Amino acid sequence: MSIHAVNPRIASVFATQQRWLMAHIALAHSFKSKSAGTTGGAYASNFIDAIVLHRVASRNTADSFLKEMQKYGYLRNSAAGGDRRIRPLEPTAISIESISAWLAAHLTTLDALDSGDRRAAFLTRPQAIAAIQPLIAERLLQSAAIRAPAPAFSLFTWLNEGGIVMDWLMAGLADISPDGRRILSTVSSFADLGERINLSRTHLIRKLRMAEAMGSLGWLGDRGKSAMWVSADFAREYHNQQSVKLAIIDSAFHEGLRLGADRRDGDAKSTQ
Hints:
The protein is of the alpha+beta class.
């Protein structure tokens, strides 16, 4: 949410489930290519093939995504590669900084659960992102829970900036109601929510009404003019999804640190 407030454009790269997965695949391809010492980046054709193979999006959507990332300076042509006409793509500094901040935020959450020191370990070895992120991407794609979330969560995750909508709703939750089924949110109006995201009021209202029809949220009084509540089931869907993501990040983090250390030791021995 803080990243979105500071830089909505780069936060929009993770604005939907589809874009989120495409971004992870693009980064993973580039990091893997560099670690293999081959091209120094990821070829667009390989990226698009992977998107179609994993049924994330169509070829046209994947191609448009790459062009958008280049337009806004999140991807660039790599200097590596012999053929200037077919140069691989690589993430720019702001993209690496942003994915590192995203990882650090999740490591902070994991540390808070078990008093760990993941974030500190990562900050001392930020280059480990190159080993950790591809593992995260691979496991996100393999996770049935991530790829096919529960109904209410799914309703928002394919909406442009729907993830931010859910984050604002959940971050503003107050006490659970006496019947245990409804949780009040500090979000009190369409305008209150709409001001925080780059989404048309009409589109937002349509999605909120669909969620209301599912019993996932509602209002204490007049719709859109009174305090909003979120159902306990919707909150549980959100928490379950976050838990799956955190478990994936946790396992990838520990494995990625080991892989990074092994590569560093191997490079040191070869130099000697």
